[in-house]
Write a structure and sequence with these properties.
This protein has helices at about 60-65, 105-115; strands spanning about 10-15, 15-25, 30-35, 40-45, 45-50, 50-55, 70, 75-80, 80-85, 90-95, 100. By secondary structure, it is mainly β. Strands 1, 2, 3, 4, 5 and 6 form a 6-stranded antiparallel sheet that branches. The radius of gyration is 15 Å and the shape is globular.
Amino acid sequence: MKTSELRIGNFVQINGNGFCKIITIRERHVRLEYLREDTNSLHRPLIEIERIKPILLSDNWLIKFGFLKNKSDIRYRLNTLKIKFNHKNEVIYNYSESRIKLISVHQLQNLYFALTGLELKIKKKY
């Protein structure tokens, strides 16, 4: 991942486990924040950018963020933002005559912020 595609508040993962929130971005490092399961305490390590990975966007993440699913379709809505899964199970945002393919959680967070000026927050915990 590149630091240029990340923002403070984005969710990413390290070691393929759970998710972490970015709290600081530097040229080659990010500071993450997450709850350690073994100690149940907040952990804030400084991690090399090469070690962080995107979180694949899924139905579960959309629901966590508070998106409502259309019962008869593959479309989701949060306020005025509407997205859908296509036949390849990719998340698509249609804008005018363009289509934006979203692969990861941080891309959705960045798109939502660009369109609304608001942070996309977890509303439903699993």
